Amino acid sequence: MTVSSSSSPVVNLHGVMGWGPEPIWSTAEVTSNDPANQSSQSVAMTISVPPETAKEYAVPGQYVQIRLNEDTKPLFLAIASPPNAENASFEFLIKKTDDNGWLTDAAAGTKIEMSQVLGNGFPIAENIEGFKYDFPTQNVLLFAAGSGIAPIRAAIESGQLGVAESGSGGRTARLYYGVRNEADLCFVEKFAEWEGSGVQVVPVLSQPGNGWAGRTGYVQNCLEEDGVPIPRNSGALLCGMKGMAESVTDILLKAGVFDGRVLTNF
What we know:
Structural class: alpha/beta
Order of helices and strands: EEHEEEHEHEHEHEEHEHE
Strand content: 25-35%
Strand order of the largest sheet: 4-3-6-1-2-5
Number of strands: 12
Shape: globular
């Protein structure tokens, strides 16, 4: 199961107990809490963490557990900001639900409890960078649905994907990002930055409003329409609803992408 935010889609770990090691709790503090999209159905939150926790975060896709106190059911949240051992703060994307208002409504200065960094994240170094296959990775495809964009953002901004602007010798990359409507898109302000770094951003709306001129339907449909360039030289990262992840994986494998290069963060 992938971990993205505390919402429901998914291949996500969100409320599943009993995974991984027992959490070791430390005190953290909310430093900002802002709407993450036009619909205000998600929040972008920055949390100040202990320096030792920041140093534990090394691979995009890793996550933490967060609770208000020992009486609160923990949330499993993928870290949305890229790894940076020198920056003792994590960013998160959290979709509002009926039972997480204690966090999504938290004001700056609110003290919470956070676990150590958990999970192995996306195994990029072994399967994208390494020499595990005879065909080097030249192209990276990224797939996110809803709040699954959080760990994908971390991967894009980490530099670990080896993507660069066209013609500069780095890998090419394309992000398919699916939501219901334009107001649900998160990190819109970062799209130009991602494009400038070599990642083609393809928003896909399943319920577009009037005036939307971009792609519609679901990310798996768009992948079918576009096809997979150089499949044996391609890798993929996925985070989102179970149906999306299964469909995308099936398309990629049938096209000839190596199974081990279709990466999830669990």
